[in-house]
Amino acid sequence: MTDADAGEGAIEVDFGDDGLVPAVAQDADSGEVLMLAYVSPEALERTRETGEAHYYSRSRDELWHKGGSSGHTQAVREVRVDCDADTLLYVVDQNVGACHTGHRSCFHRTIDGEHVGERVFDPDEVY
């Protein structure tokens, strides 16, 4: 067992060549997968400093505070890292919805197009 496996010392995240790792946001109480986004070293640092989820927007090429414009923040209870240290799991308390489409989760439809998620806000009223 290594020191990291024993809980002694922080894990060094492998941000790879592009400086980003995927992060899954999961509801702390229900276990529901809410979204997937990317995290830079700065986003991870801000998440750990503030206790609220920060990501890196690849489309806008900037740091992104989840809920910064909508108010639908994610309070991060725990940050977990996978066995290869190249993927993160944010265990969160989601305020309202995680998806910009108004759904609680970004995973609100099946591959066949069936709607399976709950819409919790009107994005036209928020954005």
TrEMBL record:
Binds 1 Mg(2+) ion per subunit. Binds 1 zinc ion per subunit. SUPFAM superfamilies: HisI-like. GO terms for biological process: L-histidine biosynthetic process. It catalyses: 1-(5-phospho-beta-D-ribosyl)-5'-AMP + H2O = 1-(5-phospho-beta-D-ribosyl)-5-[(5-phospho-beta-D-ribosylamino)methylideneamino]imidazole-4-carboxamide. GO terms for cellular component: cytoplasm. Its EC number is 3.5.4.19. Residues 35-108 form the Phosphoribosyl-AMP cyclohydrolase domain. Pathway: Amino-acid biosynthesis; L-histidine biosynthesis; L-histidine from 5-phospho-alpha-D-ribose 1-diphosphate: step 3/9. Gene3D superfamilies: 4.10.80.70, Phosphoribosyl-AMP cyclohydrolase (3.10.20.810). Keywords: Amino-acid biosynthesis, Cytoplasm, Histidine biosynthesis, Hydrolase, Magnesium, Metal-binding, Zinc. Its cofactor is Mg(2+); Zn(2+). InterPro entries: PRA-CH, PRib_AMP_CycHydrolase_dom, PRib_AMP_CycHydrolase_sf. NCBIfam families: PRK00051.1 (NF000768). Homodimer. Catalyzes the hydrolysis of the adenine ring of phosphoribosyl-AMP. This is Phosphoribosyl-AMP cyclohydrolase. It comes from Halorubrum lipolyticum DSM 21995. The lineage of its organism: Archaea, Methanobacteriati, Methanobacteriota, Stenosarchaea group, Halobacteria. The gene is hisI.
